[in-house]
Amino acid sequence: MQPIATEVLIIGGGLAGLCAAIHLSKAGFEVILIEKNSYPKHKVCGEYVSNEVLPYLEFLGIDVFAEGAKRISKFELTTTNNKTISANLPLGGFGMSRYCLDAILAEKAQENGTRIVQDTVTDIQFEAHNFSVATKTGNTYRSKISIAAFGKRSNLDVTMNREFIQKKSPYLGVKTHIKAEFPEDLVALHNFKGGYCGLSKVESNAINLCYITTFKAFKKHKDIESFQEEVLFKNKALKHIFENSRPVFDVPLTISQISFETKSPVENHILMCGDSAGMIHPLCGNGMGMAIRSAQLASQLIIEYLENRIPSREALEHQYTKQWNANFSQRLSMGHAIAAIFRNDSLAALLLGLLKLCPWMLPKIIKRTHGKPMQVT
């Protein structure tokens, strides 16, 4: 069977992969995107997006508010000892489910000419200045450029022998949608011993409830319900939400082995995007924004390379790595620092006490984990 040729091959159809597909196909390049799942699909995700991405989404032809996204301007934080701290978000954001947003982006990508293939990539090789990609169904694809946007962890991370995949991660995530009374303009972060839980409304008027904890904390309890009742309910705000809501999902979604280890933005000449390139701790609430911004960085440079305005693949990879680090390394460092503080009950209490005394500090901390509105050229 002859290999299927394309200019750009994207592995993974989440936010980063789809935004890159829209951008590149909009610029007139031939794009094939391989995604193992069909659309629409729910994913474990905080489903809050910083407004920094709005200019770029508009450039891509996406109006999230026309699709029902909730405008979010306020932030609330509760502590393990039931103290509450509130602030206005410096830039604001919006709430939209991955079920809805991914489907909208996939439709736009196909409208632009992207070919979306439902399949699983099993191997990717770089030889003679081209990529050769094998899939589970037995197809082979060849491309000049390859983007990896396959998420937090994948079998391809093992195949590529990426350094972070060698280390076991202690984190697991749980996500569900619930119906309850909750302000549309609020994103809330509720801390509990061993983790934190985020809540915000999405386009369906459901509340996205997503929490992260460690396997060590979770395994002491027989199931999710026991863990929630015995651990999460010690935070009175969370207990109130759970006791005064009804579930939308039959069962919560779960994901394990979530890694916040440092990753490389380029692996074997493949440009890594979204969570494949690096994950910020969910308590910073900006993973979706980072994924979308990384797609813009990669797409703009790929266009310059394919139009011979970047002289070599080496220069392309160097510029992408440089721009990725300039945009995200400080955010990731801040995310690691905040997460480390919240893992230590004494330090967390000290920080939260300081924020109570100096509430002006909270917006400044939030700014350090977010970017400015994306420039579109």
UniProtKB/TrEMBL annotation:
The name this protein goes by in its record: NAD(P)/FAD-dependent oxidoreductase
Annotated PANTHER family: CONDITIONED MEDIUM FACTOR RECEPTOR 1 (PTHR42685:SF22), GERANYLGERANYL DIPHOSPHATE REDUCTASE (PTHR42685)
One Pfam family from the record: FAD_binding_3
Any one GO molecular function term: FAD binding
Domain FAD-binding per the UniProt entry, residue ranges: 6-306
The species this protein was found in: Subsaximicrobium wynnwilliamsii
UniProt cross-references to InterPro entries, sorted A to Z: FAD-bd (IPR002938), FAD/NAD-bd_sf (IPR036188), Geranylgeranyl_reductase (IPR050407)
Top-level taxon of origin: Bacteria
